[in-house]
Amino acid sequence: MPEIMYREALNQALAEEMERDRRVFLIGEEVGKYQGAFKVSQGLLDKFGSARVVDAPISELGFAGLGVGAAMIGLRPVVEMMTWNFAILAMDQIVNNAAKLRHMSGGQLRCPIVFRGPGGAGGRLSSQHSQALESNYAHFPGLKVIAPATPADAKGMLKSAIRDENPVVMIEGERLYALKGEVPEGEHLVPLGKADVKREGRDVTLITWSRMYYFCEQAAQQLEKEGISAEILDLRTLRPLDEEAIVGSVKKTNRAVVVEEGWPHAGIGAQVVDVIQSGAFDFLDAPVLRVTGLDVNMSYAANLENATQPDAAKIVAAAKKVLYAEGH
Amino acid sequence: MYRKMVLIRRFEERTGQQYTLGKIAGFCHLYIGQEAVAVGADEAIRPDDYMIAAYREHGHALARGADPGMVMAELFGRTGGYSKGKGGSMHIFDIEHHFYGGYGIVGGQIPLATGMAFASRYRGDGRVTVCFFGEAAANQGSFHESLNMASKWKLPVIYVCENNRYGMGTAITRTAAVAEIYKRSAGYAMRGEQADGMDVLAMHDAVSDCAEYCRSGKGPVLLEARTYRFRGHSVVDPATYRTKEEVEEERKNDSIPKLRGAITSRKVASDAELDAIDAEVKAVCEQAVKFADASPEPSLDELWRDTIVGEGEEDVRPRQRVLGAQVDWPAWPGPKDFDVRWEIEPKEPSANDEKAQASSRAEERNKQQNGRASTTV
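^ inputs. structure came back:
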């Protein structure tokens, strides 16, 4: 299997879906002539022309709404947000229109659209550019929310999202674009709503998604050296949550740590903990702990920025705590 | 045309009455006074052109041909409504008649209309989108962002600004630096003009002309319809921010007697014929209330439907669901059913293309020279 970058995997997904379905078009800032702010759309303008790879003005609300309008009469737009921080301007269209069209019309309309772009801390960009905003979108019925960690999942989930009949919010990892991994060529679909056990283990489950998966992997390797077997459950889809997989893994390991990049207050992790306490309460040998970004705005200074985010050491410490193995 | 005008007037009077009886709740915005705008526009476009509006939209839906009983049932929150009672007054959708709703966030539908017009150019379906919004919505960013994209990409959309002079209780002159909304088109290099929104024939002519302009590929139009609502912003608004004299003065300009006068003076129809239409419409509206009253509340199972589209799930066709009618439902072209012939920006020749062109030009010259040479021999 060829090893390619996360951004190339997304590019493959877009090119393949645009090839097989003329209803699919890409719109966003810098997606065409500039070849994408993060080079995800490299080469697509030449291949598909300027009506299918549309360089939009800096009008996030406007072109998000344009996509929704086109979707409701049968096209399948992919709306690229240069980052999810900027998509806050478009939230009215995503939440008040895309997520509610089916409902408000009593089932007459559907809105098959993908809003995609990078989320999370970019690296030394301060507070406006360093936000993990998935919990905002996961709050709303009518949306699906996905956040793949690996290049293979990125390709397979984007293809599934484009074929989905509902609005999908896809939050890519801004710092994952250059990451390499094995990706199947051609048709490769990863179903939405299914979590993935990325590492099997016995003693504790680390539940996570997107870039935090890699910190969990580092933590698991460290724990392994100390004789602790950690399982990693990559949620991949944040709405709908794969509750069965979460409960199943915790029933097996009896301990869990939920790791997320975003803020703790009303974060996705809070919902995951609720799923665990209501579905696996009798199986728990310790309270579930959360490792999250600190409940503060992101700073520019390197040391402050690092300290704000989760890392492997914080995850290891939390895992040991739920194992009552501190000082181990 | 006359029938539609009277239907909307009588229907909305009934709506106001049913609201005071407690049969209708929530926000309810009546169209009384503005009928000429929606009817004139609807009569000027094709049945399969797209129409979309804001939350004062009962009239637009009726103008397009929505069933009055089902619109009333929606207002009553009953299962016989277009959205099974889930949308209410602000969210009437009748996709069978290409009426795409009913939106409650001021200006939120303007980008949607822009996207529908984008889809028309993309598929080359030759259709026009007509988008209605109030003058106060022209202060939203969605308006400006949409006009810019529509003009840059020459999208076939008519933005019809229904200027009834008040955004809820605030006169537009108090909130807009330029209160003549059509003038804002100049900033987007697009056609903009005013029309008399209290005259259905004038509206018809204006929209016909705009539709032809859009269809011929010249781009969008901003059409400001000068109009007036005779009632408050919503049913519960006593409209104390306007003087009685102002409302009295505007009522003299009522579009319905005006149309009636035009019809009888030109002898298109007699008073007796128009009276018969009045009586028929009155009966239709009475029947609409009866239908809504008789329609049951939606079942609680409905709570769990229409949020996420399930695998293989079809769209709901309201008149088929409620009345068992055969409906002509829009069928959108599939993955390979059309070609995208549109180029927003024509390709710039690359260095290789230029080289290729230069060599083919040289070849052409050689051929011509050889040709001449051979004829002279």
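The radius of gyration of chain B is 25 Å. Chain B touches chain A through 64 residues (CB under 8 Å).
thumbs up if we can close this ticket
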